Amino acid sequence: MGFSADPKYNAFALADDIMEPFRPIVDEKVYELMQHYDEQELNTKIKSELLQILTRTVYFKDEKSPLMVALQKTASSLQQCYTGNRKKIKYPKLWN
């Protein structure tokens, strides 16, 4: 069950809702790639550049973190919400 996505038509509604705040990072990178490449299909070079998104720096208060680690922190905070140890999911600031 997702927070806002309809689980009746989407088995991954919760995952979609959790990752939605990260969408601007991906959108920005795809836009950047569209400006530099004429290709209409994914190739190895473009895939490699997309994977670099995971190393992008994001911020938790005063702490810097690669996006890959931030995703783990967000998922862990969701688990803590389910167990009652947190009241809110922990999301990073995407830009400082």
Largest beta sheet: what is the strand line-up? 1-2
Round the mean pLDDT to the nearest integer and report it. 89
Shape: globular
- Give Rg in angstroms: 16 Å
Q: Largest sheet, if any? A: 2 strands, antiparallel
| Helix proportion | 40-55%
Write up this protein.
The protein has 4 helices and 2 strands. With 96 residues, it is mainly α. A hairpin with a 2-residue loop joins strand 1 (57-60) and strand 2. It starts with 12 loop residues before the first helix and ends in a 13-residue tail after the last helix. The mean pLDDT is 89. Helices cover 48% and strands 8% of the residues. A two-stranded antiparallel sheet has the order 1-2. It has helices spanning 13-19, 23-36, 44-51, 67-83, and strands spanning 57-60, 63-66.
Topology (elements, then pairings):
Elements: H1 13-19, H2 23-36, H3 44-51, E1 57-60, E2 63-66, H4 67-83
Antiparallel strand pairs: 1-2
Brief summary of the model shown:
This protein is mainly alpha-helical.
Give the tags.
single chain, 4 helices, two-stranded antiparallel ribbon, 96 residues, globular
